[in-house]
Design a protein that fits this description.
The protein is an alpha/beta fold and about 350 residues long. About 20% of the residues lie in helices and about 25% in strands. α7 packs across α8. The model has no long low-confidence stretch (mean pLDDT about 95).
Length: about 350
């Protein structure tokens, strides 16, 4: 398939710059795979579509304040450092701006949120094929432990922030209420709509709640640059699927319940494990670069809760595949649903509204 097949028109004003007034105040578009029907609801109505015996699977990865500011120790020139992945203590891969000045051997003084020296240095020691810099930190036992004090939440590039006036709100709202395992540099955004009360009410009505962990990388925003989907190489992300979740899913399936994946990251974990084990789920930790696009048969999930995704993105391609499993028809069906969401003035992307695909 062609990458251009997954393009669509989105008025810029529909890109959500800020979260809804409360987490569950977002809208919910419900798409039925059986007949293509669409319902326009609000997020708390999710409870009407789930029933006793179903199991909701969520990604409990926690976003780290991965964006650091620094100044060249020699020239004073400023850098933005976005930590991508930890190799070992004080040894990280990072994206840097401006990249042209981030040369090997450059020493950078890390600044605190007030722009003052934090007495921590970063030294660039290498570059990989993606243009990421390898950085060694000095002056701290572990930079990871300093991120809550020095770092900023790494919001997506389409969310504009001038200054730090909304820093505390973003620290709270660009994080799920059940976040636990620290390691993501982008939020599993489908989970941002949940409140603790909604999760409690789901459990009360007999819906199981289970967790996987996938640490979301910056590749989640990476555009597909190849003309065809087959020419694109997915980013790799770390995941963990525990035995308790495997057992909860197996029990639900045995009793006729449905598996509802919350977010594309959760679905990628489940389908990665199923693909490697003849359709079965087993407890495992690993890395995945699974690329899901039409046509695709799914083995591990019966429904998907997700947000509205960027044009030409791998996330949009995944939901198109899920809209019509085993067929290429999902692209047209999902793009038609997106067009209706645009007409109805839904809010798009990370801080935007939600979609339930049943």
């Amino acid at each position: 398939m062609q990458t251009a097949d997954f393009d669509y028109f989105l008025p810029p004003e529909l890109i959500a710059e800020d979260p809804a007034p409360s987490r569950d105040a977002s809208r919910l578009l419900v798409f039925s795979r059986s007949d293509g029907q669409i319902q326009h609801r609000v997020f708390p109505d999710l409870l009407e579509f789930l029933r006793s015996g179903d199991v909701l699977v969520l990604n409990n990865s926690k976003v780290i304040p991965a964006r650091l500011r620094g100044a060249n120790s020699r020239t004073g020139g400023h850098f933005e450092i976005l930590l991508v992945e930890e190799n070992s203590t004080n040894d990280w891969w990072a994206m840097m701006r401006p990249g042209k000045r981030a040369r090997e051997g450059t020493r950078i003084e890390i600044l605190n949120l007030r722009g003052e020296p934090a007495n921590i240095q970063a030294v660039i020691v290498g570059t990989n094929e993606e243009g990421h810099r390898r950085i060694l930190f000095e002056g701290t036992a572990n930079i990871f432990d300093q991120l809550d004090v020095l770092g900023e939440i790494p919001l997506p590039p389409y969310i504009n922030r001038a200054g730090l006036d909304k820093l505390e709100e973003d620290r709270l709202r660009y994080q799920t209420v059940y976040a636990d395992a620290a390691g993501s540099v982008a939020a599993p955004t489908a989970g941002l709509h949940f409140t603790k009360e909604i999760i409690h009410r789901l459990r009360e009505q007999g819906v199981g709640v289970a967790f996987v962990t996938l640490h979301v990388g910056l590749g989640t925003f990476a555009p597909v640059k190849s003309d065809t989907l087959e020419g694109h190489t997915m980013h790799e992300e770390r995941y963990w699927l525990g035995g308790e979740t495997v057992n909860q899913i197996a029990s639900a399936r045995a009793a006729g319940g449905r598996v509802v994946a919350v977010g594309t990251t959760t679905l990628r974990v489940l389908e990665s494990v199923a693909a490697a084990n003849a359709g079965r789920l087993v407890p495992v930790a690993g890395r995945t670069n699974i690329f899901i696009y039409p046509p695709r048969t799914f083995h591990a999930a019966d429904a998907l809760l997700t947000n509205f995704h960027l044009p030409r993105s791998t996330l949009l391609m995944l939901v198109c595949a899920f809209a019509s499993p085993g067929s290429a028809d999902g692209r047209g069906r999902m793009l038609a649903a997106y067009a209706e969401a645009v007409r109805e003035r839904y809010r798009f992307f990370s801080y935007g509204d939600a979609m339930l695909i049943l």
